[in-house]
Design brief:
Length: about 290
């Protein structure tokens, strides 16, 4: 199969949906065994499991940079750590792909992922998604993720929202000018106090909680995929091996029809923040989300 084309800003502007999938094995990643979590991006609406490096076409990759101390502490509180995700327009380097552990645990003491050279670290960078040290999903020092362009200019921000409905996870998404563009929140029931899961259909898990992108004032869903779907972030079923062994997560992003290139980059960061705050914690608590 031909190598995928670079995922440039121009190409991103024409993209309606992507899958953002973890490529690093999460098996035995507690404490000092916590490796950097790398991601692959592809233009698709589903994830078929197996080895993510062989499930082409991958069109971009994202690598994590965080200290050994921050990764070590994330075993009990992953939503709290300071972390930086660097997004590239090209495919994952072979050296990094070869160093990914698919069956068992790894111990990474360096800041950079295994196999990542200094040249590849800065090559084809399109954006970064950066989070300082915060609390987790609570009302004290709420977590947020800033998305910046290749020159370090702020282009968007995703902020966890704490309000009276504490059992409903939600995020506000801002553009680079600080204007609130979207509310990311699941559907609810019982007067808005509880999350309404979705069961069956599509490529998601049999019982899942899609995060719907909404108008920030009315909270009505915004359309995506040319008006045929709701704009959303949905956790996908990633296959038995990934769910039970390597515990890699995958997310389907449907972009709003009116989203700019910068907002689409910000929304990729939003999907990662959802994972850091909720799914990483669940994996640490019970060995994997199902």
């Amino acid at each position: 199969m031909d190598a995928p084309k670079a995922f440039t800003m121009e190409r991103l502007g024409d993209t309606k949906q992507v899958v953002v999938a973890q490529s690093t094995s999460q098996m035995c990643r507690t404490g000092c065994c916590q490796p950097s979590i790398n991601w692959l991006v592809r233009e698709a609406d589903n994830f078929h499991g197996g080895n993510p490096h062989q499930d082409y076409p991958n069109v971009a990759w994202i690598h994590e940079e965080s200290t050994w101390f921050q990764r070590c502490g994330s075993g009990c509180a992953p939503g709290c750590r300071s972390v930086k995700y660097v997004q590239h327009t090209s495919n994952i380097p072979d050296a990094v792909a070869d160093a990914e552990d698919f069956m068992w645990c790894t111990c990474q003491c360096d800041e950079l992922p295994k196999g990542l050279s200094e040249e590849d670290r800065t090559k084809d960078v399109i954006a970064t998604h950066e989070k300082p040290q915060t609390c987790g999903a609570c009302c004290c020092l709420v977590p947020f993720l800033e998305t910046k362009d290749a020159n370090g200019n702020l282009i968007g921000k995703t902020v966890y929202v704490c309000d009276g409905c504490i059992f409903v996870p939600k995020f506000d998404i801002y553009n680079g000018a600080g204007e609130k563009k979207y509310r990311l929140r699941p559907d609810t029931c019982i007067g808005g106090c509880c999350v309404m899961p979705r069961c069956g259909g599509g490529g998601g898990k049999c019982c899942r909680v899609p995060y719907i992108l909404r108008n920030p004032e009315t909270f009505e869903p915004v359309s995506g995929n040319g008006g045929t779907d709701k704009a959303q972030v949905t956790n996908l079923w990633s296959g038995f091996k990934n769910e039970l062994c390597t515990q890699r997560q995958a997310y389907h992003l449907v972009f709003p029809d009116d989203a700019t290139q910068q907002e689409k980059l910000t929304l990729m960061g939003s999907s990662i923040l959802v994972d850091v705050i909720f799914y990483e914690q669940r994996n640490n608590d019970n060995g994997g989300d199902s």
